[in-house]
Amino acid sequence: MKLTASFLLLLLSASSYAANFAGTVVRVTDGDILVVQDDSTHGQVRVRLAGIEAPKRGQAFSDASRRSLGLLAVGQTVAVQWQKRDHNNRIIGKVLAGSRDLGMHQLYTGRAWYSEPNQSELSADDQRAYQEAEESARTKQIGLWQDPAPVPPWKYHKRR
C-alpha cells in the first residue's frame, strides 16, 4: 500500500514540471496557433503561443497575422517549452525556431497583442520583453497598430 501511494505521489509531482519537445510546424491555424509534428511521438500537437493573442477571424489583421506566422514557421523545426494546456486541450508554450521566439516575432511585427490576461504563461523576463516588443510595434504604428483603435481579442469576444 505504501509503495502504491508513493508511486502515485511521484507521478503527480512529475506532472507539474514544464515539458519540452521538438518537432516540425506543419500548419498554422491562427496568428497564435500552430500544429506541430512531434519528433518523438510522430503525432500532431496543437500549440497556442504563450502570452500573446492574435486577431481572431473576423477581426482586422487576422489574415495578415496568420500569414506572417505561417511564412515564419511552416516547415521549420521548432522547440516547444510548455507547462499547461488550455480549455481546448491545446498546449500553451513558448515556441522557438532556432533562436527566434515566434510569439515575440508576432508582437514585434504588430501581428498580435501582449496578452496581460495570459501573462502568467511567461517568465518575468519574457513578460517584460513581450510587453516591450508590443510597445515598439505600437510606437512604430506597424501591423495592427495602424488601426487607430485596435480591439484585442479578449474584448472582441465580450462584445460579440
Walk me through the structure.
The protein has helices at residues 2-14, 62-73, 102-108, 124-140, 153-159; strands at 19-30, 33-38, 44-49, 52-53, 77-85, 91-97, 100-101, 113-114. It is of the alpha+beta class and 160 residues long. The model is unreliable at 1-17 (pLDDT under 50).
Topology, please?
Elements: H1 2-14, E1 19-30, E2 33-38, E3 44-49, E4 52-53, H2 62-73, E5 77-85, E6 91-97, E7 100-101, H3 102-108, E8 113-114, H4 124-140, H5 153-159
Parallel strand pairs: 3-6
Antiparallel strand pairs: 1-2, 1-5, 2-3, 4-8, 5-6, 6-7
Helix pairs in contact: 3-4
Shape: globular
Q: Strands across the major sheet, in which order?
A: 1-2-3-6-5
Estimate the mean pLDDT confidence. 88
End-to-end separation in angstroms reads 53 Å
Number of strands: 8
Question: What is the gist of this entry?
Answer:
The protein has about 160 residues and is an alpha+beta fold. It has helices at about 1-15, 60-75, 100-110, 125-140, 155-160, and strands spanning about 20-30, 35-40, 45-50, 50-55, 75-85, 90-95, 100, 115.
Keywords:
160 residues, alpha+beta, two-stranded antiparallel sheet, 8 strands, disordered N terminus
